[in-house]
From TrEMBL, chain A:
This is Septin. It comes from Capra hircus (Goat). The gene is SEPTIN12. InterPro entries: G_SEPTIN_dom, P-loop_NTPase, Septin, Septin3. Filament-forming cytoskeletal GTPase. Keywords: Cell cycle, Cell division, Cytoplasm, Cytoskeleton, GTP-binding, Nucleotide-binding. Belongs to the TRAFAC class TrmE-Era-EngA-EngB-Septin-like GTPase superfamily. Septin GTPase family. GO terms for cellular component: midbody; perinuclear region of cytoplasm; septin complex; sperm annulus; spindle.
UniProtKB/TrEMBL annotation, chain B:
This is Septin. Pfam families: Septin (PF00735). Residues 372-428 form a coiled coil. Septins polymerize into heterooligomeric protein complexes that form filaments.
Amino acid sequence: MDPLRQSPSPSSSRASSPRTFSCERLGYVGIEAVLDQLKIKAMKMGFEFNIMVVGQSGLGKSTMVNTLFKSKIWKSTMPGLRVPMPQTLQLHSVTHVIEENGVKLKLTVTDTPGFGDQINNDKCWDPILGYINEQYERYLQEEILITRQRHIPDTRVHCCVYFVPPTGHCLRPLDLEFLQRLCRAVNVVPVIARADSLTIEEREAFRHRIQDDLKTHSIEVYPQKSFDEDINDKILNSKIRERIPFAVVGADREHMVNGRCVLGRKTKWGIIEVENMAHCEFPLLRDLLIRSHLQDLKDITHNVHYENYRIIRLKESHALPRGPGWVNLAPTPSPTPTGTRASPGPGKVCRWAEDDSDEDF
Amino acid sequence: MQHPLPSDAGRHRGSLFQSHITAKTAHTSSQVSDHEQKQKDSPRSLTMSGHVGFESLPDQLVNRSIQQGFCFNILCVGETGIGKSTLIDTLFNTNFEGHESSHFYPHVRLKAQTYELQESNVRLKLTIVNTVGFGDQINKEESYQPIVDYIDAQFEAYLQEELKIKRSLFNYHDSRVHVCLYFISPTGHSLKTLDLLTMKSLDSKVNIIPVIAKADAISKTELQKFKIKLMSELVSNGVQIYHFPTDDETIAKINASMNGHLPFAVVGSMDEVKVGNKMVKARQYPWGIVQVENENHCDFVKLREMLICTNMEDLRDQTHTRHYELYRRHKLEEMGFMDVGPENQPLSLQETYEAKRHEFYGERQRKEEEMKQLFVQRVKEKEAILKEAERELQAKFEHLKRVHQEEKLRLEEKRRLLEEEIMAFSKKKATSEIYQNQTFMTPGSNLRKDKDRKNSNFM
């Protein structure tokens, strides 16, 4: 390599193909310590999680949320109390900060009273979709600011738990419509609510029918098959997919069973223990949502759903259902570009949208 | 709780004050009444009655990061032969590259190489960027510009990816420079002018950690004085080097003490020498052995610990949240975007984009028109020339035709004359033959007639 004959390129930043080295046999370097650094940073910043529960009234949504997080997030409505039925679908959010062993979690739960309760439930999913999109919009607006915040507050819905009433037959048209629309925008976890009214065999049959229905209508619920990255994920997630939708029972009262104090529902014919796998599948739901897949839920929301929203929003703003905070932007201009690319310069910045290949400036 | 650094306060603008408050209260457990709970922005703190299980959240995060792998980019700036490659080899315990660089490059170039390291289950994609030919030229005025350009180019690439519509940030190979190791030569006196200029132009773009290279050339006492001199020069010239963060209690103490040891005096070596009964990395001299990992001999262990074990994540964080954001802000402002429009209405990026796009299309239409006009004009000119040529050709043709005609007439004239002569000649021949026949019939008197005839025949 004759240096004098080489043409000088001031910033030749082509990296050669990566070579793999293993450090173990040569001694200690300390790269592992970066994991601890990550942990410290994460614990300092705290975590955020936003969950939405959707279902008809009386299916036990509030109780379920209270059971999941073992605290009174809401006062659960008891039957018999005169609670006025909301006339239209409302969205009601509550935010709490809970802490366990030094890990702080900012939890936001959004409830949807009035869903599916009217006579005519046409388009009852629109306010929900609008709410979800509004959160995406808020995040997007923060992200495209020039002076951004260090940590953009994340209010996007990470998971939507859909309560299916325990009819024992199959998914109803309302369920199908809703699931179809929502699965494209957010991670949906369907559960069979009030599962204590079904026997084990009925439960299994119902579950299979629901799974068939979902497959027929190509509704991809969480964990989505198309996002499995490697073989470990596939194995783990297919086990979960076999059991979706989970049959759950919620309870926030404690009773004595065999000397232990357990959460459960007391009936004349026995006590249904919420945390007993033989009785209901609540532990599976809790493990999925909190103990093993919480980070994954957030990642898929951020990398997939939010990106999809962003693409649509930046291309065709008019095609989305809108939340109340919508800002009407200038309409897209009519002249469609011809195939040629113009010379770079101040005009270079504007080549957004229309061409799908290589979208850069 | 992480308090924003004082320099960040300037970044929070008035319109964001509300959401800034929200971010703060989210991390404190504040007690508010049920009435205020109706608002979305005031979180309550709850106590749970049992074990929920989200303490595994940091582990989930770590697992995901392990799956994704880590990325770390080091830029080494220093003169040729000062020991950059050797130090990197020693830091990561691997022989990365073979050959030494030459001293005769006409310009400074940057050479980047990516390696994949693995230690237990952590995968690290390490990119080492070396300045080739730095400080070798006779005229060093342009020496630091390629480095600044390289760093900007990496930021630019990331910005482009972030601004795309269909982007994939989570599997984007982040090539932004996370740390710059600046190698100072061990003269023992002070910083060179080139060093000062380079560091000054780099300090707002990258985290700079200055190191004194080949520290085995300085004695202990000289080293102390040198360090003090260097730091005071840096401070007095306003160069902002990277200080290890001291806001987290677990590492605050050690970071603070390390901050006092900057710049680190390092020695690099991959050769192993037997000391005592162990093989250690060292440099062997006739007067002794300089051990790389001995804290009394040099600060190598401190550098390794600070760079890799304790602060790698913070370096990446600072690059992303401070240096990259600064670059992004400048770049976007340069392109003409603002956060606030003419009447102080918050202007979204997209509106500005739409406006610019209108403008751009208008500009392009105009250019198209211009080119069309030009084209038409050129065509007209060409046509005129061709017509001219045609006319000329026509004239020539006519002229030739005329000449041809005249020639033809002349020839006809000549032919006619010739034919007349031929006819006259043949008549005379005929009459002379008749006369000859008559003389053969009358012999006597014909002699004289013959003679006459003969004579007249000859006439």
